[in-house]
Amino acid sequence: MRLLSWNVAGRTKVVQQQIDAVCGRDPDVVALQEVRPSAWPAWADGLRRRGFAHLAFSHDLARAVGREPALTTGVAIASRVPLVTSPPRAELPYPDSLLSVRAAFAAGPVDFHVAHLPPGSSKQHGERKLQTFDVIYDTLAIDTDVLRVLCGDFNSPKEEESNGTVHCHSKVGDDWYMREWMVMAGLAYFGLADVFRDCNGWDVEAWSHAKPEYGDWKRRFDHIFAAEGLGQRGCRYHTDWIGMGLSDHAPIEADFDHDAAPGRSGCGPLLGSAAPAGGRRLYVAGAWYDAGRARFLFDVPDSDGFDFPDPDEPFDPNDWPYLVRCRHDDEARDRATHEARARRLFESTEAPMKFKWVDFPLDE
Fold this sequence. Notes:
Blueprint: E1 2-7, H1 15-24, E2 29-35, H2 40-49, E3 54-57, H3 58-64, E4 74-79, E5 83-86, E6 98-103, E7 110-116, H4 126-140, E8 147-153, E9 159-160, E10 166-167, H5 175-184, E11 192-194, H6 195-200, E12 209-210, E13 218-219, E14 222-227, E15 232-237, H7 240-243, E16 252-256, E17 281-284, E18 287-290, E19 293-298, E20 323-325, H8 331-345, E21 356-361
Parallel strand pairs: 1-2, 7-8
Antiparallel strand pairs: 1-16, 2-4, 3-4, 5-6, 6-7, 8-14, 9-10, 11-14, 12-13, 15-16, 17-18, 17-20, 19-21
């Protein structure tokens, strides 16, 4: 199976050239961002003519549930195999910014989530951008055997280091940083790995978005996160498409072992569509982070040399090797659940585990 994800920059005069470029890569699934409603009919017609019989556009899905699109562009998906669409989550501030479908492959269904997040830490979008990150995380931060893919333009991260550290916008440890980081790095602990980094390593410099007016400014904003069970075989950016004037974003393309032959269309509804119980809370194999206060559950191999985090210092999630999210308010249930998960994470060590609960206030 080949997936191509691309921000087409809302362009309307080069749609046919864009379609030719996309289909020239022979993908099985195409995910698009920043598609203008006026350009979608041409996209849909062109893709259908090339064998993509199953399509969905976020503006159409929003209107189907009585919500007006909030953005001037939307996200779309085209597939050679049947799709089951899911209505936009009620919590989405922009119902047209996230599109979720289930694709019916003979080898087993795959859930695709296509996202477009607004730029940077802009005042224009502010909290609504963070709410979109929240919904993406709430939808995908679950333990499931279903094969899943999250792709699109996230306008994040701000920077990456060769050691795998991901730097998001805003200051380390503050609310903005954490809510953005939960998607960009935290979903890896729910089986959604950064496919490009898995295939190419962290020491490879890569970018997908350029702004010539800012000189040599380049960022890797476009991503594919996918379940390991899909068997990723390769991932690449086609940065030459920017030079061709097709967009200011390069498409990201990934190949998977998953057989692309179509399956039956009645493949069932998507998982993860229900709103999570409880409030915002992060769990690290080392720490809790909670909006309003932090509760730290330490579950590292017993070691005299382990330094517990200082509650007076900003909490940097990059300093903690494992992150999972608690989705319930039942403290006893959570503790048992996460202690069990922590033991699985550290199952390779014979050292005893230690569990310690400490409450720390966070700045409002």
